[in-house]
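Ligand: S-adenosylmethionine. Inputs:
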Amino acid sequence: MPRSYFIGRIRTPWDSRLLTPRQGRADGPVCHIEIFEPWVAALEDVAQFARLEVLYWLHLSRRDLVRQSPANDGAARGTFSLRSPVRPNPIGTQIVELVSIEGNMHSVRGMDCLDGTPLIDIKPDRTLFSPIAPPQPGDFQTS
Ligand code: SAM
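Predicted complex:
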């Protein structure tokens, strides 16, 4: 199996976690997603999608908290009940509006990560796709 690796880097105006939005907004600033070779050619046909799902690695996060209190209100909650960046594998996901693609650079609105955050993947927004057929009972059984 090939090892996992980052395919690009996200450029945003934010260099402080405290100043970074907790969730991106469609009216947020234009941010830039830089794609590394050999994946630039994989941008072909992406421009037809108005919305993209971006997956990124929240690289400065702690990864050791099973319960946490992100609001610092004294109420600890289970990590998997939260969208906190503090998680065992700190993957962030966001639906963004595509502004333009030029060369190896996407311009988008709606990001909520620090400048320099590593990029894992880009996909068309899943709500733009219909299932081929409605799921049937037993479809998701594995054994
Ligand atoms: N939209 C994503 C999600 O729901 O999966 C991420 C949401 S997370 C609450 C966004 C917060 O993570 C930001 O407000 C900032 O505090 C923090 N953050 C952003 N980029 C980060 C990075 N590269 N490393 C660690 N923390 C980061």
